[in-house]
Each structure stands twice: as C-alpha cells, then as structure tokens.
Amino acid sequence: MQNITFNRRTFASLAALGAAAVAVPALRAQPKLEKSKIAIAVGGKAAFYYLPLTISEQLGYFKAEGLDVEISDFSGGARALQAVVGGSADVCSGAFEHTINLQSKNQFFQAFVLQGRAPQIALGISTKAMPNYKTLADLKGKKIGVSAPGSSTNMVANLVLSRAGLKASDVSYIGVGTAAGALAALRSGQIDAMSNTDPVMTMLEQKGDVKIVSDTRTLKGTLDVFGGSMPAACLYASTEFIQKNPNTCQALANAIVHGLKWLQTAGPSDIIKTVPESYLLGDRALYLASFNKVREAIALDGLVPDDGPKTALKALASFDNTVKADKIDLAKTYTNEFARRAKEKFKA
Predict the structure, then answer these.
(1) Could you report the per-residue pLDDT of 238-279, keeping only the tens digit for each?
(2) I need a labelling partner for 157 at 20 to 30 A (CA). Which of 21, 35, 248, 281 fits?
C-alpha cells in the first residue's frame, strides 16, 4: 500500500514538474502572428506627424516583433485611407479623426496605438500672395494648400475657417503633399495660404514665406484650437482585421511604442542619423528646429487619452454636417488594449 502511495505521489510531482517545464517556455514565447506580412498605408511619411512610424521601421522594431512590414507612402492621409478601405493595405498610419468619419459612413475602423498627441498642423498665410492680410475673412475666395483634400490638414483648415464664419466652399483646397512640392507650391504663388505639417511649415516660417495664424504643433496651441487634447497620428485598421489578427496588432503596437520610448531620450543627432536623408529637405538645421518645435506633440506611450476622442468628434461635427455627434459610438473608434500591453513591456 505504501509503495502505491509513494508511486502516486512521485508520479503527481513529476507530472506537475513536467507541466511547469512545458508552461515556462510557452509563457516566454511570442504568440504566433496570424499574419506576419503587413501592408501599411501612410500619407506623407516624411512629415514629423509620422516620425514614430519611420523610427520603428528604421531601427528594426517591426522586424524584432516578427513582422515583415511594407509601407506605401501616399500624398496625404485621405489617399492612404482609401488604400485601407479598398483593401490594398491592411493598416493605415493616419489621423485619428478618420475613424469617426468612417463610422459616420457606417464603416467601422479602430485606432489601436497612438503616435501623436497633437495634430502638428499649422495654417500659414503667404506673405507674398497676401501682403495685406488682416483676418481669416480675407481668405474668402483664396486657394489653400493642404497635403491632400480630405486629410487632417484639410480638417484643421476647415475648423479654423468655420470659427471665422467661413465655409469650406468659400475657399479652394489644393493638394500639395507634405514635402518639397508643398514648399514649391507656396513659393511659386500657386496657393495663397497653406495648412500643413512640419518640417514644411517651420521652413516656410523661418524664411519669412508665411505668417502663421493657427498652430497645433504644441500642446498649448492644440488646446487653443480644439479646446481639449486631440489625438492625431495613429495606427488604425478595420474592426474585423483587429478581431481576426490580435497578435499581429499587438506586435504592431509593440513596435510603435518601442519607437516612442526611443524618441523620449533621442537627441537631434540621433534623429538625423536615423531618418532618410531626403526627409531633411536639404536643410539639416531647419529640420532640427522643426523637430524641437513638435517634440512635445509626439505620443509618449501609445495610449489614446480618455477625453481625446470627444474633442475630435466635437471638432468634426462643428463644420461637417455628415458627422452627427449623437450617432457616433466613440468606444468603437479606438482600443487601448494593445498599447497598454506594449507600455508595460517597454516601460514607456
């Protein structure tokens, strides 16, 4: 009898030890990715607005998560959004408010990691085309450059103009991209004003080409324009994609939060060494001046702030009649579940 008890006990102990030995590697192993090859669409990758995406790509953080990421760059966020809605890209690196716009059209997309906590968009008046500019009302009938019609640069311009009593139809919007083409469009007189991101706006400002009349490149400026915190660049995908590929979305969030953590302590020379040379637009000093201006607008930990979606909805509904605030379920526009895990992993 004693032997049997001893054997049973020994067997139970050995079985428990065996189970523990199997469990430990399972806990440490990365969960299997449902999809390792991912297509990301972005509108204006060279802009500081998307710097966390570039950093995560250039430093190999996507690869470290087992991802093979292909990034397609479009002229503006609205074009990148079309790629994701049309199915030629899996994920969009774009403006948070697109998730609200899409829901108003009965299409459900969710942001799952934040890259920017301020839109980093400035509206500037051409000093050459409008030397006698006094108020925003002077823009009636004028041509305003934006990265692409329907993009966040367009949205910020609409919001600022609406507060001055102007409708979107009172001006003409022209897509000029977010790089050298935007500089050329303003300097050659093709447009009278421009709503765009950095480094373009700082370059124009420092050379005296524009007079800045509205600025969301800082947290204070964002508060002045929007009246609250305004989530900006993020990774978003269809709710269906996120539900089917949770481990893949976690890996993407991890890579971005890893990049955000690196950016918290990166010096100007680190940035210069990491981004592609073409991003500098031929002027290192001005590029770095721009970076210092927008640095605080970069997200810290990938989490969408609690009050942010409300601010975004209020802003959109104030000038876009197709967005009905009472019909939008903000809880469906974002999830912090992936960013929270990534924040814990990297202590961001």
Answers:
(1) 999 999 999 999 999 999 999 999 999 999 899 999 999 999
(2) 281
Total domains in the chain come to: 2
- Mean pLDDT of the region 311-316: 96
User: Among the residues of 87-144, which ranges form H helices?
Assistant: 97-104
- Computed from CA positions of residues 164, 119, 238, 79, in that sequence, does the dihedral angle turn out positive or negative? positive
Q: Please choose, from the candidates 148, 313, 123, the residue with its C-alpha nearest in 3D space to the C-alpha of residue 221.
A: 123
Tokens at residue 108, please?
Answer: 């459900």
Phi and psi for 8 in degrees, rounded to 5? -65, -45
State the angle between helix axes of 97-104 and 308-319 in degrees (0 to 180), rounded to the nearest 10: 60
Residue 191 sits in the same domain as residue 156: yes
Domain boundary among 223, 252, 268: 223
Indicate the pLDDT class of residue 15, thresholds 50, 70 and 90.
very low
Dist. CA 325–CA 344, nearest whole Å? 34
110 residue type, one letter: Q
Confidence category of residue 17, pLDDT binned at 50, 70, 90: very low
pLDDT in tens, 101-143: 999 999 999 999 999 999 999 999 999 999 999 999 999 999 9
Extract the runs of DSSP E, i.e. beta strands, from the chain.
37-43, 68-74, 91-95, 109-114, 121-126, 143-146, 172-175, 193-197, 210-215, 233-238
Residue 268: its pLDDT value, please? 87
CA distance 309 to 97: 8
The domain containing residue 272 runs over which residues? 37-119+230-280+294-346
